[in-house]
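Second opinion, please. Pick holes in both lines of this record:
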Amino acid sequence: MAILFALIPALCWGSIGLISGRLGGTSYQQTLGMTAGAVLFGLFSLMYFHVHLTGFAMLVGIASGLCWAVGQFQQFQSMKFIGISRTVPISTGLQLAGTALAGVLLFHEWKTTSMVTMGTIAVIVLIAGAALTSLRDKRQGVSSEPVEAGRGATAIAISTVGYVLYTVIVNLSGLDSKLILFPQSLGMILGALIFIVLSPQNRRKVWHTATAKNIITGLVWGIGNFFMFMAIPKVGLAISYSLAQCGIVISTFGSIWLLGEKKTGREMVYTTIGSLLVIAGGVTLGLMK
């Protein structure tokens, strides 16, 4: 059951880029709308679990949410620069490396030599698969301008730091995940508002129907986030987060088939093999438990 909990975020998070891509909007509109949806889900979790919030839980949750806002906003930025089918695989590989490293070094989740060996191989397979899905067909040249590619790479790097910190902060606190969900959503929307304040040209544009539509994206994300933090105490940070990243398959193929991102025949082969490697690595991590 715990493994199933850890797989639900894959379905939800893998759909985020597709949903937001369909709903449209700028990175600012998408982030604000998504965080508003997350707050609604946070309120639901607060009433559902009847939790008693402490000052420490509020501090940890808001800090985690702020880090998430950085990660998600920058990922939306990268999607605009280089596309979903390239952004998600690269971002996934970097996140897996960071969270797995944190799980091992900070929380000692892999306790035996065999677990370390198997876990290391699984993460390498996951990262290799993620990298393979992002390969381009050199015969077709580079479709993105160098400036756009550079901006995309910078956005992914910043995004990775934010995403890794948002899970590590919660796990490091030792708090029950039920205490975190609502204050975390407050930190998320606070982060989105900070980005808007820091960008005067987007202050008026953000109040748009696209922002309201992206509330749906936030609700989908909230469901995935709920189940990931439910899974962490049962299967550990490295395993739960790695399984959650299997949503790369949904994002990658969905962006090609549903959003019309172009791939050559050779790139489709890279994508298919890479996706199979991601699944294999994720299943291996799940079986370790």
